[in-house]
């Protein structure tokens, strides 16, 4: 499923995780209130909307243990430039916070996770504000089946993971969606001015280990 199929994903999640259906068959329901993780006392970074930021998770994610308010951090792995000017240097930290965890009451139902990424720590002191969405996510570059919860490598997306070598390709600024994670979909939504990224699994609990690759896109105002 495309990460841009927002209505379909949110309809599934908010309809008490019933069977998949066309989102156009029913009007979308309101999303839960988001918790903004941005810091209004910091500066706002100036980057064009849509700019990609390649990073890796420095904290793992496991939906069975996540709760609202938990921090989710990532480290930038490549300099981010605006023209010839370097705005974010490799090694900067991206700070996020879990806004909501949605677990299905029925066995095998959908699990959903809302995360707000809104701060970048460039140096000591107050982090700078920068609203972001998740553009792509994948296991660590050298990840094995443990990062995929034992998923059969034969079912993985061709060209992203080698079933023979058991390795995952490096994500780039052009990467899109959940790669080598066939049970996870990505979407994003703006609610009350807050940019939310949603990770949803059709097969219950999921885990993303520390070091998982992640690409952010600067949110468009």
Description:
- By secondary structure, the protein is mainly beta.
- The protein has one domain.
- It is 4% helix and 38% strand.
- The protein has 1 helix and 15 strands; from the N terminus they run H-E-E-E-E-E-E-E-E-E-E-E-E-E-E-E.
- The chain has one helix at 6-14; strands at 52-57, 61-62, 71-76, 80-82, 85-88, 93-102, 111-121, 128-138, 161-162, 167-168, 177-178, 184-191, 194-201, 207-208, 213-218.
- Strand 9 (161-162) and strand 10 (167-168) form a beta hairpin.
- Residues 1-7, 12-35 and 143-165 have low confidence and may be disordered.
DSSP strand (E) fraction? 35-45%
Q: How many domains comprise the coordinates?
A: 1
Total number of beta strands = 15
Major sheet: arrangement of strands: 1-3-6-7-8-15
* C-alpha termini separation: 25 Å
- Give a short account of the largest sheet: 6 strands, antiparallel, barrel
Residue stretches low in confidence (pLDDT < 50, at least 5 long) are 1-7, 12-35, 143-165
* Overall shape: globular
Average pLDDT reading? 76
Order of helical and strand elements: HEEEEEEEEEEEEEEE
| Estimated radius of gyration | 17 Å
Structural class: mainly beta
Q: What is the share of helical residues?
A: under 10%
Specify the oligomeric state: single chain
Treating each run of at least 4 consecutive H or I residues as one helix, how many helices? Answer: 1
Short description:
The chain is mainly β and 221 residues long. The protein has one helix spanning 6-14; strands spanning 52-57, 61-62, 71-76, 80-82, 85-88, 93-102, 111-121, 128-138, 161-162, 167-168, 177-178, 184-191, 194-201, 207-208, 213-218.
